Amino acid sequence: MDAVEALEEIAFRLERELASKYRAKAFRKAAAIIQPLSAAEVANRVADGSLKRMAGIGDTTYAVIEQAADGRVPDYLAELRARDAPADAPASGLRTRLRGDLHAHTDWSDGTTSIESMARAAEALGHEYLAITDHSPNLRVANGLSAERLTEQIEIIEGIDAHGGGIRLLTGIEVDILPDGTLDQAPEMLAQLDLVVASVHSKLRTESEAMTRRMLGGVNDPRTNILGHCTGRLVQGSRGTRPPSTFDARRVFAACAEKGVAVEINSRPERQDPPDDLIALALAEGCLFSIDSDAHAPGQLGLLDLGAARAEAAGVPPERIITTWPLEKLLEWARPAG
After folding, report:
1. What is d(CA 69, CA 210) in angstroms, rounded to the nearest whole number?
2. What's this model's pTM, rounded to 2 decimal places?
3. b/e sequence 220-237, b meaning 16+ C-beta within 10 Å
4. By C-alpha distance, which of 101, 160, 177, 98 is closest to 132?
């Protein structure tokens, strides 16, 4: 099989199962190194031993390339395919109705790959649109985007879209809701974007009334479209666990329904946010929803399967999920005329 495709599939599957980002990046790096080489050149370099001496090619990636060049499915890839078999099962009914993903990160903030790599992976999954929503300046640990960097990113995304392709990239941001309830980016910058996800990332143990006021401030901002991972909880994974923040969920969801802000069903398995009881409450309050991956690498775009399964189990009607909407309807909702 094609060695580049084998390396990239391994990286994708590692990302989907949330393995160490460094493991996945090693396979993507090796794929980039041999990408310019023809299949014959790769085979020749395997045969004469020069490939193994190339910088960026380690023992494991070399074994993958060697086996692919020999016409075999590499052992490591076969192992991952067997391990991932449940994830490769046919999608649920709701999952097949999702048209896109409105929360994804790139190497402009704390993602691992380029805008182009994320776009290719989303297109391969059948997405019609993907919003690039890197972090805002306050989240310095995630290399959040200043207004200048965001302006540059908008130009790049628009340039990619201008060249056409099978997927529409949307300009966006995951903007912090600051402790005083304001959004962590200039209003004039937010107004230039197709879509704004507003999330709380800091001081998650704030007492309930103050956290409620903070979240209401974010929801009531006219530029906010989606309330991201609303409790901030972690239920598993390498970062450990973290309890949900406390706030008056009924007031917050009532404001979301009133302002037309969608409540995100975050698909990451370590978040599973909102919890089931809050999905039920948001449903009862009349909220819209957005099923998003919060992907930080191409393989994580496939996590939408998990979010769709949770929404389906909770009985969320597809028509109230904005990521089932066609692009024209979505954009009209996100940025209505006038």
Report:
1. 60
2. 0.89
3. ebebbbbbbbbbbbbeee
4. 101
